[in-house]
Each structure stands twice: as C-alpha cells, then as structure tokens.
C-alpha cells in the first residue's frame, strides 16, 4: 500500500515517575496494513497501545508525536478526542471488556449508533452477516445472549465485531487470543487480519506469538527500552543484531 499512513508515530517516549519505559519509537500503519508488535514481557507494549488510544495512566508521561488521521493525539486523552481521533481497541480479556449486564445485541447496537440498544431491521441483517463472517454460527440466537453465556472464542469474536462496527479506521488488538486454544487463536487472528485488509483500515496486533507476527505486513520489536527491529517481519528479524531478535530468528524455519 502506498497511501498516506493512517497512523504515524514519531520519536515516541514514555516514562513513569520512576523510569523511562521506552524511547525513540518510530513506525506507521497504512490502510489495509496490520503491524505486529513484539518484545519481552513488561517492555511497554500495552502502554504503547494505550498512548495511541489515549488512556494512559495519569502518571505516565508522553514525549513525541502520535498522528492519527492527520491530527496530533499524543497528549489527548480518549474522552477529549473526536470520533476520527479514536482507534478501536480489542483487549486480552474479552469478559472484562464486555458489559456483563447487556446482551450481545445491546452491545453491538451501541457500537453502531452510540445511543441505541436495539438493532433495526436494516442493521440487524448487516450485523448478523458480520457475525457469520466472524465464524459465529447461528448469529440470530447469539444476539440474545449475555457475555457469560458465550465461550471465550465467541466473546473475542464479538469484541472484533464491536471494533469493526464503529467508525474507527484503526483497530488495536492487545494479545487478543492469549486465553484461547491454538486452533481458535489461529482462526481469530486470521479473521482479524482479513477484516482489516478487506475494509482497508489499519490494524496493530500486540503478540508473543511469532507465527502470528510473521503473518502480519510489518513487525516492530521493542527491547531494552527502544525499537530493535522494524519492517517486513522475517527481514526485520534477520537484520536485527539484538539478542531478542536473534532468539526469534532461531525459531524461523
Ligand atoms: N498504572 C501504571 N502506572 C505506571 N506504570 C505502569 C502502570 N502499569 C504498568 N506500568 C509499567 O509499565 C510497564 C510496561 O507494562 P506493559 O503492560 O505495557 O508491558 P507489556 O510489554 O505489554 O507486557 P506483557 O507482554 O507482559 O503484556 C510495566 O513494567 C510497569 O512498570
């Protein structure tokens, strides 16, 4: 894709009151592109996604630029952002992300219309078609269920549907499949990537799974508080001299 990036992150640094989490992070995401982010546990991958989405803890300071849809959002909390300044976020724990007291229909309706909790005849067809595309059998009956009545894989598919129904043109998924079995994990990651590409929006996948990262368009690796690899996944890993990437390289077939 040669279009102007949806998201451009330039010289981004994050620090809390005690230490720098990372510094000098640079990357971009274009339409139809999925960027994977990998790195050792605790390096700040989730904090990076929170910086992009605008819900960093108050004691974490941001330096550098986050340009989303041509506007600077690095210092803007989520609640002060307009619709085009808000990416959709899919979290690791779908049960916590969904409202336990609302049915699937109510949550999907809210994603579509902001203030309605029932689907109308027109959008019901579009929603059930999306649920079917996301691998949910019998989508009509699923609409009436509460999150606790769904399996982990079904809940995460609903979270993907919610992220795709809103107006966001960037979707960030933070380890969305870490609680799922490997077959469901693979299916959901494929659905995530395909949905991004088909809709020509942008995606970020934070993952510890090398095969999931290799299937993305680009890979950013953060280690030792900075970026140590960036680019086409296999090439980026092979070109990096950092020990974390050298360990990843040993896992490449
Ligand atoms: N509320 C907070 N305020 C300040 N610093 C925090 C807060 N929560 C986490 N941190 C710090 O941010 C660091 C990065 O955490 P983060 O969850 O972003 O790492 P991660 O790379 O996503 O880890 P993992 O791969 O294990 O999910 C943590 O080591 C912690 O020190």
Automatic annotation (TrEMBL):
Membrane topology, as annotated: Peripheral membrane protein
Pfam families associated with the record: ABC_tran
Alphabetic keyword roster: ATP-binding, Cell inner membrane, Cell membrane, Membrane, Nucleotide-binding, Translocase, Transport
Lineage: Bacteria, Pseudomonadati, Pseudomonadota, Gammaproteobacteria, Vibrionales
Domain of life: Bacteria
Gene3D superfamilies reported in the protein's UniProt record: P-loop containing nucleotide triphosphate hydrolases (3.40.50.300)
Single GO molecular function: ATP binding
Gene Ontology CC entries for this record: plasma membrane
Name of this chain's protein: ABC transporter ATP-binding protein
Keyword Cell inner membrane set for record: yes
Subcellular location: Cell inner membrane
Principal location: membrane
Span of domain ABC transporter: 7-249
Family: Belongs to the ABC transporter superfamily.
Entry-linked InterPro entries: AAA+_ATPase, ABC_Ni/Peptide_Import, ABC_transporter-like_ATP-bd, ABC_transporter-like_CS, P-loop_NTPase
Keyword Protease among UniProt keywords: no
């Amino acid at each position: 894709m040669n279009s102007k990036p949806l998201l451009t992150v330039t010289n981004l640094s994050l620090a809390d009151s005690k230490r720098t989490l990372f510094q000098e992070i640079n990357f971009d995401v274009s339409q139809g592109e999925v960027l994977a982010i990998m790195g050792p546990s605790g390096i700040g991958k989730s904090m990076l996604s929170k910086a992009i989405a605008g819900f960093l803890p108050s004691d974490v300071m941001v330096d550098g630029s986050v340009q989303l849809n041509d506007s600077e959002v690095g210092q803007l909390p989520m609640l002060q952002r307009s619709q085009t300044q808000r990416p959709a976020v899919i979290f690791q724990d779908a049960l916590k992300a969904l409202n336990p007291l609302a049915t699937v229909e109510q949550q999907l309706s809210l994603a579509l219309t902001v203030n309605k909790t029932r689907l109308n005849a027109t959008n019901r067809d579009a929603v059930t078609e999306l649920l079917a595309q996301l691998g949910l059998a019998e989508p009509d009956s699923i609409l009436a269920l509460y999150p606790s009545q769904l399996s982990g894989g079904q809940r995460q598919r609903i979270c993907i549907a919610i992220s795709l129904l809103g107006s966001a043109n960037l979707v960030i998924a933070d380890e969305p499949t870490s609680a799922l079995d490997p077959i469901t994990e693979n299916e959901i990651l494929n659905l995530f990537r395909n949905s991004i590409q088909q809709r020509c929006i942008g995606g970020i996948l934070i993952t510890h799974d090398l095969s999931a990262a290799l299937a993305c368009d680009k890979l950013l690796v953060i280690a030792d508080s900075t970026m140590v690899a960036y680019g086409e996944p296999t090439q980026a890993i092979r070109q990096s001299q950092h020990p974390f990437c050298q360990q990843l390289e040993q896992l490449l077939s």
